Amino acid sequence: MKILFAGTPIFAATALDAMLAASFPVDLVLTQPDRAAGRGLKMQASAVKQLAQQHNLPLLQPLSLKSAELEAQLHAATPDVMIVAAYGLILPATLLQIPRYGCINIHASLLPRWRGAAPIQRAILAGDQETGITIMQMDNGLDTGAILSRHPISIAPNETTATLHDKLAILGGTSIVATLQDLVGGKLTLTPQAETSASYAAKISKSEAAIDWTLNASHIERKIRAFNPYPGAFSSLAGNPIKIWQTSVVDPDSFSGMPGKIIHVASDGIAVACGHGTLRIEILQPAGGKKLTAAQFMAGHAFSIGDRFVSADKQV
Q: Where in the chain is the domain with CATH 3.40.50.170?
């Protein structure tokens, strides 16, 4: 079987690594061009490129997929299937039709729930109790293709996007290997998605990460987990922007006073009133500083009961 692979970040590299470990030959890898990253803005290869180079796999990094030259290269490769995972570029209809068995996508949700760019964050933010990996046949729509298989996983009460991403990346790898094994054995079946159950996972914007303390404590706590590690939920205390990384709900329902007001301080956290309920801040990060426990923050910053966290205009 001749396999092409298209992907860019570590989520995709985890799947590619699982395929190679299972002895599925990959004839060509597509990944996004190197990007400037880090404080020094040095050019950095994607996780998929680094893995492909380690295994001496043929590699292409097109700026666009709407190229007659690229289309000719893919036709010449005569692929049986293309596996796509978090590639970052939309595949034109002409490319979807090149592989014998089409293009198969590894999507980080239980489709048709959370189609789109940010399924992990949206699942946590919505308070979903489970998510998973869907292996789907790609078509011209946005994650609308027929489902080959779905692989559920529970969302832990303290799950962040960072921790859930890593679990789903591993699950994506095992799921695509199983799919390829079924494809070789001729066991694949396609199930159309139920459009009435579809929901959209819009791309995360930095402005969404600003904390609105008039919301209930449970919602704010989910937002903080959903936006960890990116873009990081943030607020402001005494005019200084602060990112908040870890919290727990002390009381989910009662009214505790003016939203954002500090109502209690202890070594295990800073209790803040919300629209409903109270949130205990346990790990936070001042502008220009590192992440601190509440006890560490209290030791180096002057504030008192009655001070307020308010919405911030900018991030840390």
A: 3-201
